[in-house]
Amino acid sequence: MNDNVFPLGKEDLLKAYRTMKTIREFEERLHVDFGRGDIPGFVHLYAGEEAAATGIMIHLNDQDRIASTHRGHGHCIAKGVDIGAMMGEIYGKVTGACRGKGGSMHIADLSKGMMGANGILGAGSPLACGAALAAKTLGHGGIGMSFTGDGASNQGTFLESLNLAAIWNLPMVFVVENNGYAESTSVDYATAVDSYADRAAGFGVPGVIVDGTDFFAVYEAAGEVIRRAREGGGPSLLECKMVRFFGHFEGDAQTYRGEGENEHNRENRDCLKLFRARVTEAGVIDGGALDAIDSEVLAAIDKAVEQAVAAPLPEAADLTTDVYVRY
Amino acid sequence: MSATTPCVGIIANPVSARDIRRIVAHAGNLQITDRANIVLRLLAGLGAVGIERVLVMPENSGIRQHVVRGLERSSNLGEGRFPAVEYLDMAISSSAQDSIDAARRMHAAGVAAIIVLGGDGTHRAVVGACDGVPIAGVSTGTNNAFPKFQEPTTVGMAVGLAVTDPGLSAVALDDNKLLEVEVAGRREIALVDVAIVAERYVGARALWRAQNFKELFVTFAETEVIGMSVVAGLLDPVGRDAPEGRHVVFDDSPHPACRLQAPIAPGVIESIGIDSWGSLPPDTPHTIAQPQGSIAFDGERELSYSPDDRPTVTLRTNAFKTINVSACMNHGARSRLLTDHRGDRVPTSTTSQPRQEEPV
Q1: From CA B233, how far away is CA B225, in angstroms rounded?
Q2: Homologous superfamily assigned to A3-312
């Protein structure tokens, strides 16, 4: 067996699979629990898009800062945020990452470089540019990274951020997660120039498009754009073409989808299935090792839910704490 | 022109020139609006020589919207003479499968030629599916070793002449070679090169890490292009019409037989270890020596193989036809196909004659 048939060693491949599987099961569980009425507020699930968050974040460290979206659970998990704290936050409990005050769309953990999910579309890009400017000024080698969907990439904040990152040559990566729908509006209707790489080129920023359902495609391209940012090559844009398995939000009737579209995606574009097939057929990892991870992940999700359910809600007196930060 | 004017197909790939070589190299980025402009120039060229109907591949990346707007604006302004444009009724996957499906449908619809906008990979997809329909290429990819750089307006005119003028049949079409790869019961083709690399994943598809190159097979090898074929070209060039190809074996050891400086991507000149090279004769299956890895067709990793697969590569000659734009335009000029004589006055050549000395 050649050592270089895969870009990662066996342990890292298993780690990547564990991360993708954790995101998948976390979201599948929320789908069930939200439908039962257990969860307050809204949730937007990342299932189907795991290869993008995982293939990108595996290159980052805690000093690298990301700004996420309303669909941020996958980014949080891949960036290393504790799933118990995440589940507590989504359940609105004091054990949550933000003490239960943020909910699904505002999970943050600065110790992991996770600046926060964000309920405002396109709001993350300028925030991440700020992190990138800080990294450049302090010279610690970190980068800034923003995630936006195909819809939010029509926002002025996103385009202004591209310009800012270009003129200041920031260590910044713009990730566009293109799942084909801005809520319920298709890309080809709502976007004048459908290639986000074209938009980047308009600002003199290189852009690349990859299959966001192929972990190895994302991993390889992300490695290059992140290295470029870290080494002073400036900003770049990575567009991941992907699919989401659930609706825009839980409860979305998805009448805008084609007949059989979800079933087709689950059958043919499931990044976890593709990953499993690739590594087992190459004989690098046996299916039993992946099955064991599956069981461990399910147990970990069960535990996170149990702890979240059992944890107390914030008290009324907590309402005015954590509002301002002194620095 | 009669109602039986031949129909021409156009396949414009919206996602060529979008890969990782924008990051790891200095590859260009031909924007969607530019691609739409190319289609409009093709249509203008086709319309100018009498083509009345064109079938176009649909896509959802924006080319269609810009073309439709452009045709409407030109119509409002009274510009040009465009053929009727019809979009194929087909599902869109936003992958190479769209080019394949469109080529099949255009063949079934009886188009006389297909104009392809894309790089080497797009042309490969079309040739593999069009079942012998002649193609003409407009380079909008990254390496563009196969399609020659040609002005789309002229390509449109040349294709229109090629499919309408019987006098062009002898000169309009060129024969081309291809490479056939058999792997695990599957047959694939490449128009320019087949590269064997060590990785067992296709990843970001493009090739740029020379240390993983193992073997290379090419149909033709020119010296002034970029990509994998130029490696063979800089060792031992071979033309598009020669009845042979080239085979190169790489050597990634610290002390190879020789090292070659080769531009394998835009702006990327790599020092590559070479073990050996030689002629690749036609119709002779060549077993790939690398026990496992991935196979790149015309510059893109496409499939991985295991030690059980034992893939082979075979060069085929006279495999498909391309329209010779230069020959068509020259014929058009000599045959006055583009000259419109009006009235009784016959234009005369003003080519200067040898001047006779006048007596002093």
Answers
A1: 9
A2: Thiamin diphosphate (ThDP)-binding fold, Pyr/PP domains (3.40.50.970)
